[in-house]
Every structure is written in structure tokens, then in C-alpha cells.
Amino acid sequence: MARVRLKDSKESEAPYKVMLFEEDPALIELLRANKVDVASNPTPDNSAAVAMLGHIIVIGILIGGLMLIVKRSAQSGNNALNFGRSRARFQMEAKTGVTFDDVAGVEEAKEELQEVVTFLKEPERFTAIGARIRAGCC
Description:
- Helix content is 42%, strand content 4%.
- It has helices at 25-33, 47-75, 107-121, 123-127; strands at 2-4, 16-18.
- It is built from four helices and two strands.
- By secondary structure, the protein is mainly alpha-helical.
- The relative contact order is 0.04.
- A two-stranded antiparallel sheet has the order 1-2.
- The chain starts with a strand and ends in an 11-residue tail after the last helix.
């Protein structure tokens, strides 16, 4: 950029700014031949810094987006890293107050159920005589 003042202009007027081509040898020779003061101030090359900043911003946006997705999936209970795991939960029923005496039915079934309950409450009593729950399902 050149600051140019015309010959007929007043000293109080601001100089005009004219854009010049970079390193124009013909213009420089002409200016030196006419004894014009020429100073060259190269503009700093910030293209590498701007490109690096652009890459950092894009990477930051990607990492931020991934963190947001993981955070949302963790909050909703669908943890992104735990797919395939059972979501079944055990819920205790409230005490109903129903006892074995209240249940109508076959006495043998009631006795077998009472034995299972006793085994679950006191397993050492049954394991001492060699009893164990059979493997598998019915």
C-alpha cells in the first residue's frame, strides 16, 4: 500500500492510499529514478497460524460433540459402553400379609414350598446332611 499525495494538494489533506502489486521491479526502478523515498515493510505471514487455529477449532468441536453424546447416553441410562447388558432390575414386593395358612390348595405343595423357604433361610442345616439345589430349570 502506498500513501500518495498529489502535487497540487494542500499539506492539510490526508494522503491517498493506493494498493500496489507486491515486488513490482519496474515500479521500484521508476520510483528510485525520480528520487522518491521508498520503504518496504513486509506484511507478516500468518497463514500457518490461521490454518493451525482452524484445525484446533475443528478438533475441539469434534471432541466437544463426542463428550456431549457420551454424557447424554450416560444420563439416560443407556450407557454407550454397556450395550448387551441386561437392564432387568429386581423389585421387592410390599409385604402382603398372606401366610401359608391363608393359601388354599394341596398340602404336599405347601409342605414342599415350606421346605424351600427353610432351605433358603438356613442352608447350613441342609448342606450338613449333603442336600443341594439341583442344577438347571424345570
